[in-house]
Amino acid sequence: MEAWLVPIVVAVLTGPVVVILQKLRSENTSQHAESRGLLEHLVIKIDNIDDKLDEHISDPTPHTRKEI
Biggest alpha carbon distance in the chain? Predict the structure, then answer.
């Protein structure tokens, strides 16, 4: 092959691969952002449960389910 033809062939073959990898990377970033939001929501829920348990332990009088 001619020396000038090799870079052109390489660019033609690797160009679409790079485009696909960039697309997958952006999708992965958005999925990580969504997962982070869900984890933050989960932490808030766990903190609420922890607070309720602390209240229950400090005041063990019977409660109905509606009061909790």
Answer: 88
pLDDT at 64: 62
Could you give the 3-state DSSP secondary structure of residue 1?
Answer: coil
d(CA 34, CA 52): 28
Is residue 68 within 8 Å of residue 52, measured between CB atoms? yes
Instruction: Tell me if residue 50 falls in helix, strand or coil.
Output: helix
9-45: buried (b, 16+ CB within 10 Å) or exposed (e) per residue? eeeeeeeeeeeeeeeeeeeeeeeeeeeeeeeeeeeee
| CA-CA-CA-CA dihedral for 11, 16, 21, 23, to nearest 10 | 130
State mean pLDDT over 25-29: 82
CA pair distance 4, 11, nearest whole angstrom: 12
